[in-house]
Design a protein that fits this description.
Number of strands: 23
Helix content: 40-55%
Number of helices: 18
Distance between the termini: 87 Å
Length: 544
């Protein structure tokens, strides 16, 4: 008994010593954590046990956690067990599944595209199929993420997926085998330009092995013949792993140069990342394509290459996310993705455009933007994302195009067309397909609104006499006439959207990307710039 008391006293002394050391380091934080955690746990217990109606304790706690994190920034989030697959894909670059990309079209969960070469595609599931059951479970009311979780699992196991296909009276059931699916970061690579001597690499994400995939894609393209330039496309790439961004920049600059620095509250989250390997092509002209959907790791790549005057950045201003997150594992297969530092690119600037500490996601005022210089002395600014060296604004979708996409008419017309035609139409046949599409829209009683409609609604509700109402009716007729004219004025663009959607019914994503790039004005501008060496060097202020 004396020995037990002595051991307990020793343990208590050790605990008090650790607490004292912590208190010396930060006299307030540990007390405040303990105090408020005690209050929170008491409130949680009282509500869970004594609220007038029964509550779900797990849901109540998770809402409390998420509400707490919402006071910080949008990137510090609690990841529950159901969301763990996406974390696995990012960290491992693969997952166990059947190869289905699914999403909402209206209130239906449909197949956006089966992954090339995997079980769903091999067994015959097609783009446009509506998923109605998984392993016999009716999925009405389920979200796409829930369907992905149901079809994911240990490689070698099976799952049955039941779909409804346009033009078929009875549902189709497929028995699919889960397998290890590698998620590729490089979505497309090709040689482009009039002479086919410019490398093009489309990078959609910065998951595991992204840098190696870029190296492999570049080397394969170079093996096909001499190259005069490279276009690296990170449009709509939301980012991913910091290390992969560093690895990609490393491919195009000399060893020993700073790529990015992270600065956090502690030394643990403060670091410098530098290039370490010889450049793949030290002098090859490079153009980076970006837009407002390019964020985080995409901005590190574009910004570092811009700061070293190693590439011309072309397109639109990037998103402006200069925060770094790490993932902390928690109990019960959950985790916390938490912002621990800000990153700074080689010129010393931060590209973070929102000041979350100021509340309401306030944009940094222009007056706070500081000037920095690139290696060659060009002026660049912080606090606003990455501004392109050559600004090219993508055309915005019109009200007609937006309505057709939002109401999913192009998607569902493609389903109907594929059910009635065994082969892909040639490009010369697209005008006839467009006429079929117009008939489909008539049958579907398609309509859409423009700003003038809302204005006329206000006028109509305000006027009181029949004469004024007749004038409003006449104006509505003019607006409707203009809407009908839009179908012809926008015909070329609508035909392109139709053909892109049909390619997914008859071919694959690669064919769709190739078709889109041929009609991409930004690609044309990039190819043109890489063919004009004097202009390229002038933009970067390079010596001859």
């Amino acid at each position: 008994m004396k020995l037990l008391r002595k051991s307990a006293a020793t343990l208590l002394a050790a605990v008090l010593l650790v607490t004292a050391v912590g208190a010396v380091r930060n006299p307030d934080i540990f007390f405040l954590i303990k105090k408020n955690f005690t209050i929170f746990s008491e409130v949680y217990r009282e509500v869970s046990l004594n609220y007038v109606e029964e509550v779900d304790p797990e849901r109540l706690m998770q809402r409390g956690i998420r509400s707490m994190l919402e006071t910080l920034d949008p990137y510090t989030v609690f990841v529950d067990e159901a969301q763990s697959q996406q974390m696995e894909i990012m960290s491992r670059g693969s997952y166990g599944g059947v190869g289905l990309e699914v999403g909402f079209r209206g209130d239906r969960v449909v197949v956006i595209a089966p992954t090339d070469g995997h079980s769903a595609q091999r067994q015959g599931i097609r783009t446009g199929d509506e998923i109605i059951a998984v392993d016999g479970v009716d999925i009405s009311g389920y979200a796409p993420d829930e369907i992905r979780n149901m079809t994911s699992g240990e490689p070698g196991t099976t799952v049955t997926v039941t779909v409804r296909r346009y033009g078929m009276d009875e549902p189709l059931t497929f028995e699919l085998t889960r397998e290890r699916i590698e998620v590729h970061n490089v979505a497309y690579r090709s040689r482009v330009g009039p002479e086919g001597n410019i490398a093009y690499i489309q990078l959609n994400r910065f998951g595991q092995n992204a840098a190696d995939e870029v190296r492999t894609a570049f080397n394969e393209l170079r093996e096909e013949g001499e190259l005069r330039g490279l276009i690296l496309d990170v449009r709509n790439n939301p980012g991913g792993l910091l290390g992969e961004a560093v690895g990609i920049v490393d491919k195009f600059i000399a060893p020993g140069l700073t790529v990015v620095e992270t600065r956090g509250r502690s030394e643990e989250h403060t670091d410098r990342y530098a290039s370490s390997e010889p450049a793949l092509a030290a002098d090859l002209p490079v153009v980076v394509l970006q837009n407002g959907g390019s964020a985080s790791a995409s901005e590190i790549v574009a910004g570092a290459l811009q700061d070293y005057d190693r590439a011309v950045v072309m397109g639109e201003r990037s998103f402006g996310k200069g925060l770094v997150q790490i993932v902390r594992p928690l109990s019960y297969n959950t985790s916390l993705r938490i912002t621990t530092s800000r990153y700074y690119i080689p010129s010393g600037r931060s590209i973070q455009s929102m000041d979350y500490a100021a509340g309401d996601s306030a944009a940094s005022p222009d007056s706070t933007h500081r000037a920095f210089t690139t290696r060659n002395g060009r002026t660049v600014y912080d606090g606003e994302g990455i501004a392109p060296d050559v600004e090219v604004t993508a055309p915005q979708p019109t009200a007609l195009q937006t309505a057709l996409q939002q109401q999913n008419h192009i998607f569902f017309f493609a389903n109907r067309y594929a059910s009635e035609h065994p082969g892909m139409p040639g490009e010369s046949e697209i005008p006839a397909v467009y006429e079929d599409f117009r008939e489909y829209l008539e049958e579907a009683s398609f309509s859409y609104r423009v700003p003038a409609d809302a204005y006329l609604d206000q006028v109509d509700s305000a006027v009181q006499d029949s004469e004024a109402s007749s004038h409003v009716a006449a104006l509505r007729e003019l607006v409707d006439k203009r809407k009908r004219q839009n179908f012809e004025e926008e015909r070329s663009r609508l035909e392109t959207l139709l053909y892109r959607e049909l390619l997914l019914r008859y071919r694959d994503q690669q064919s769709r990307i190739a078709f889109s790039l041929d009609r991409d004005p930004l690609m044309g501008r990039a190819v043109e710039l890489l063919g004009d060496g004097d202009r390229y060097r002038s933009i970067l202020q390079l010596g001859n």
